[in-house]
Amino acid sequence: MSTGEHMVKCRHRTTGYPEKNVAKPARPSSQPLYLGSRPLPVLRLFAINTSHISAECHIRSSALPMSASNLHSSRIEPQMEKRSKRYMDLLRRRLPLLFSITLAIYAFAWYPLPAAYQGAEGIMVALFLFALTQEQGRPMRTNTAFLLCMGLLVYLVAGLAYHKLVLPEGFKVSVRFSRYYLKPLLIVIVAFGLALARPRFAWLFLPIAFCGLLVQLALTIDGSLIDQILQGYRPSFGFTNAQHSGVAFGTALLALIIFAPRILHTRKPRRYVYGALLLCAIAIAAACVLVTQVRAVWLALALALPIGFVLSLVYRDRGRKNTFKGIYLPVFALLAVIGITSALLLTTGLEDRLEQRLVATDEQIQELQEALTLEDVARTSTTIRVASWAAAVDWFSERPILGWGPGTTPQLIEKAPYFDDWFKNQFGHLHNSYLEAAVSLGTVGLLLLLGLVVYLGWAIIQAYRSGAMPRDAFIFSWTFFIFWLVVNCFESYIMFNTGHVITACVGGFLYHFYLKAEIKDHDRTPGNESGD
C-alpha cells in the first residue's frame, strides 16, 4: 500500500465517513521533513493540509440537530420582538385617547383627589416622553417652548451644583423647590395632549376643571361654614388659604363670562338649559370670589373684565351682523355678575365687612412706610407683603445674576434680623411670584421664564391671525394674562399647586391652538407624512 492510500484510510477511520463519499485530499502546501533520503512518516502525516478536515467537521456539526434550549430561545426571541412591536404600535395609536383620559383626571382631581392628580401628572409626563420618540412627537423636538423649558432644566441642574459650592454656611438649595420652577413645562405637555385629542375634548377640558372646583366646594361647605361666612369669616374651601380659593374661582368667573356667547350658541331647547346652568355657575363663582375677600382678585377682575369687553368690540367679526349673542351678551354677563354681587351683599349683611376690608388699606399708610424701611412690621396682610418685597430687593441685589438658589427663601427669612418669630413661623415665601423667581433664580432664570411668556404670547397672536384660534379664546387669553399678572404681584403662586395647575390648564388650552396648527403643517411637509 502506498503512503497516500495509507493516509486516506487513516483519515477515513478517524472521521468515520465512508470511503466512497470522501474525496482525496489535495496536495499539501508544505513539504514533509526528510531525514537523509527518506521522509519521516509521522512528520509527513502532520504536514498534510487539514483545512478540508475542519470544513467537513463544520458541515457535520451543522447537520446535527439543535439542543432543546437553543431551539426554544430561537423561537421565543422573534415572538417577544413581534409582541413588543405590537404593543408599541397599539400605544402609539391610542396615544390621543390616553392623553385625553389623563388630562381629564389631571384637571378634575387636582384638589378633590390629590393622589389621582399626582398620578395623572406623572403619567402625562411619561406619555409626552414616549411621544418624543415617535413620529407624533417629532415637531416637539424643535418646538421653541419645549427648548426654553429644556434650557431652564439645564440651568436648574447646573445651579444646584453651583449654589452648593458658593452659598454661605447654613444655606442649602432644594431639589423640590427646583421642580416648582420647571412646572411651566406642563403648559407644553397639556397643549400637546390637547392638540392630539379631538377638538370637542379640548373645549370640554376647562369645564372639567371647573367641575373639579365644584366637587371640592361641595366636599367642604356645610351649614356651620355658611354661618361663619355670613359673620365675615374668609373660607378657604380646602385650598391652601383664602387667596388660593379666591384666585381659582376668579379664573373660573373670568372664563364663564368670556365664553358665555359660545355656551349659549345652541339650539333653543338646549339653550335654556345651558343658560340656566351658566347663570348658576356664574353665581357660584361670583359668590366664592366675594366671600373669600381677596382684594388682589377683585383688583385683577376689575382690570381684566373691562379690557375683555373692549377687546370684544375691537376684534369683533365685522363680516357678521352684530347680534345679541356676539356683542351684548358679554355685557349682560358682566351686569349679571354685578347684580348677583349686589344681591349677596344686601341679603347676607356682608357689606360692612367688605367695606372695612377695602378701607383698611387707607388706614395703613404709616404702617406701610415703616414696613417699607423694615423698621417695624405690623401683623397685617399689606404690611407683611411690603416688608417681604423690601427684603427681597435687598437679597436680590446681593446675588443679582444667578440668585440664591431654589429653596433658600425660607432660610433667608429665618436669618433676617428685622422679622420677628411670629413672622418667621407664619411665612416662608415672598408673596410675589416675580420677586420669588428673581431671588431664587437670578436674572438668568428670570429671563428664561420671561422668554417663555413672550413666546407663548407671540404664538397666541399667530394662532389668531392664522384663523386657528377663535375670537373668544383670543380675548380670554389676554384677559387671563392681565388677571394672572395682577394676582401674582400679591402671592407666590409659582410655588404652589394652585398656580401650577391653573397655568398648565389655561395656558395649555390657549397654546394648543397654535401647536395643533404647527403639528398639521409639519405633517403636510413632504417627507414627514405619517404612515398611519
TrEMBL record:
Gene Ontology CC, one term: membrane
Domain O-antigen ligase-related: 281-450
Region (Disordered): 1-29
Topology class, membrane: Multi-pass membrane protein
Transmembrane segments: 90-109, 115-133, 145-165, 177-196, 203-221, 241-260, 272-292, 298-315, 327-346, 437-461, 468-487, 493-514
Signal peptide positions on this chain: none
Domain of life: Bacteria
Record keywords: Ligase, Membrane, Transmembrane, Transmembrane helix
Protein's recorded name: O-antigen ligase family protein
Organism this protein belongs to: Marinobacter nanhaiticus D15-8W
